[in-house]
Amino acid sequence: MASGGLQLLGFVLAFLGWIGIIISTAMPQWKMASYAGDNIVTAQALYEGLWMSCAMQSTGQIQCKVYDSLLKLEGNLQATRALMVAAILLGLVAVFVAVTGMKCMKCMEDDQVKKMRMAVLGGVIFIIAGLAALVATSWYGNRVARAFYDPFTPVNTRFEFGSALFIGWAAASLAMLGGAFLCCSCPRRETSYPPTRGYPKNAPSTGKDYV
């Protein structure tokens, strides 16, 4: 029962992490315009994401523009996109594989060993998906930080970390933690054999019949 509870906890954490990765990928707040230092605070906030850039007015109105051409984007941004999409697809595969191996599911009940292996495989895929998202968000955040501290970057074009990065970091951590729980939830296979029962030996014949 304890391993089943750990398995369920791992799946819930990994699933929440996968949902967070999707939300982070879709959000446009990967970096936001910085108003630190001598920057003049304007009446709008500027955001940039993987798919679009947005400007939010002081009235609360948001205007977004999708990037026109994929080929005109920076290679780093394209790589970040690819890693996040790969993390989403891997997470989708991990969900189906892990559900198949869950002890509370009826499928593959006739072979518990394969069922356990499916749960472990789902956990491994969740860990890989979390690592892909972690690499993508950390790589993007490192570029933002380097550009911010670069003295040659104009003050009015500096950006800071957006909320999507923090959600991505938290989601990647949840996916890897849940995947680790899935990998550790299955006990080792122990093969037990019933004790051998000896057959009674026939008493030696004495050649005498008793009535």
Automatic annotation (TrEMBL):
Segments traversing the membrane: 7-27, 79-99, 119-141, 161-184
Cellular component terms (Gene Ontology): bicellular tight junction; plasma membrane
Alphabetically ordered keywords of this record: Cell junction, Cell membrane, Membrane, Tight junction, Transmembrane, Transmembrane helix
Membrane topology: Multi-pass membrane protein
The keyword Transferase belongs to this UniProt entry's keyword annotation: no
Subcellular location: Cell junction, Tight junction; Cell membrane
MF terms (GO), sorted A to Z: structural molecule activity
Its biological purpose: Claudins function as major constituents of the tight junction complexes that regulate the permeability of epithelia.
Protein family (similarity comment): Belongs to the claudin family.
Protein name per the record: Claudin
Organism of origin: Corythaixoides concolor (Grey go-away-bird)
